[in-house]
Give the backbone structure.
Amino acid sequence: MVSYQLTKKILCIDTDYDDVVKSFKEGREPVYTYFEEKGFQCVFAQGKDANRNNVSKLAMDDEVVYITGSGHGSDASFQGHKGHDLFKKKKKGWFSRKGYLEKEVEGKIVHFLSCNSAKILGIDFVDKGCKAFLGYDEVVQLDPDYNPIYSVCDSAIDYAIADGKTALEAYESAVQFYKDTIRVLNARNSEYLTFGLKKNLERLKGPSISPWGTRNAKIPSEEKNL
């Protein structure tokens, strides 16, 4: 039996063209350092590079095992630079515009910090072969002063995935991190922060419920036997 080392790539997508998405991107930067410390290769599509052609090409790489992104979104789309669609569910009909390709998400775990994308797009990902999707099914709340704590709580998903946890465990890690943060901020009487965090916690979706994938989905081990 022969074993060989797998190259595990993480596709990291972030936009920064307005204050909202810029705050998301800045709050997520430590995550990428952590992935690299764990032996992953981060492949970036950020700023102007967060465009449909580039992201599609990168996502098609068989070595990409996890896609994590932040940006604006809608029920059926996740958006990149200047609000252009990166992933969009194809509408039915002869004249509908082309959506994403199944191979872009097939066999991968996907996590988006964006408004609404869990509602339709995330479920469509799973229908197209995505192992699990984690994201939000309504508007993501944000501190008016762009406090990074909002993206830090969400990043608990990425840290758990990097540690080899399952998609369900990653979801549960984020839920617990949200709850712990809310409890600390409540003790400090930071009601304006806790309100938004509570809303985001309510709106976070993942494979604890069947439409968003397989509970025990996880990234492949480092070695594969032939």
About this structure: The mean pLDDT is 91. The longest strand covers residues 64-70. The two ends are 6 Å apart (CA to CA).
